[in-house]
Amino acid sequence: xxxxxxxxxxxxxxxxxxxxxxxxxxxxxxxxxxxxxxxxxxxxxxxxxxxxxxxxxxxxxxxxxxxxxxxxxxxxxxxxxxxxxxxxxxxxxxxxxxxxxxxxxxxxxxxxxxxxxxxxxxxxxxxxxxxxxxxxxxxxxxxxxxxxxxxxxxxxxxxxxxxxxxxxxxxxxxxxxxxxxxxxxxxxxxxxxxxxxxxxxxxxxxxxxxxxxxxxxxxxxxxxxxxxxxxxxxxxxxxxxxxxxxxxxxxxxxxxxxxxxxxxxxxxxxxxxxxxxxxxxxxxxxxxxxxxxxxxxxxxxxxxxxxxxxxxxxxx
Length: 316
Prior knowledge:
Blueprint: E1 7-8, E2 13-14, E3 37-40, H1 60-69, H2 73-81, H3 88-94, E4 98-108, E5 111-118, E6 120-124, H4 125-138, E7 144-152, H5 156-170, H6 185-190, E8 195-199, E9 211-212, H7 226-238, E10 248-250, H8 258-261, H9 267-283, E11 295-298, H10 306-312
Parallel strand pairs: 3-4, 3-11, 4-7, 7-8, 8-9, 10-11
Antiparallel strand pairs: 1-2, 4-5, 5-6
Helix pairs in contact: 1-2, 4-5
């Protein structure tokens, strides 16, 4: 992607790199869990390749394919495991500010390291964290939410080691665990804070600068059927989200048995392209704020003007 990426909408030029800093002043003292924030689903799955080994998060469908086709199954698995084609720097430039991150520790030739996973092992974690830090350094009024919600093959020692890596990379940019009402753009800007880290493991209780998984509910429809997903999203929207937490709206169709019946297709063409226009039509009729949209996640975030549509909810 071009260094000066922007997204052309029907009405204006959207500046994905600076959209938070460009929000109207009336929103600067609003808790950031009241803002509409575009996110990506399985944010680092773009790094998965057929050369990667099967990861500990592999689904039953993946295991069935491996049993049926052996290593040749990876050609199929990778097509259904990649949910993003933009890498993290390009997602940041496009305007993504919430990242859905799944990590496993793995030992290779006697050396342990942390990897992003989605059915197969992807890239190592630390270089991506540094890319995020580099973006934040050059965009001091932008804020990111990093959600480590699936953590595999990690004992307490590994968790402590990984958390130290997070603190070492982001340092004083990390926003401590506070009541959400006090976490506003102005508060973060005044204190040079740019990163909110959610960590879904009990070890988080020992680290008050990390937010527990319970602070960010993320209901999952777990269906490959678009109509069922939209019924699920509407039901949760109508029931209103908790005002003292962040909240993720998952616009995600899950393959389940779809893979077995579509071996020649892939996740993007069989599911993601189907749900994107339906979701955009639905969400653009919603609002942000107390009873509205907070964080959304989508596969292949460049589709259907998803990012400017979500950001635009803040101006309704």
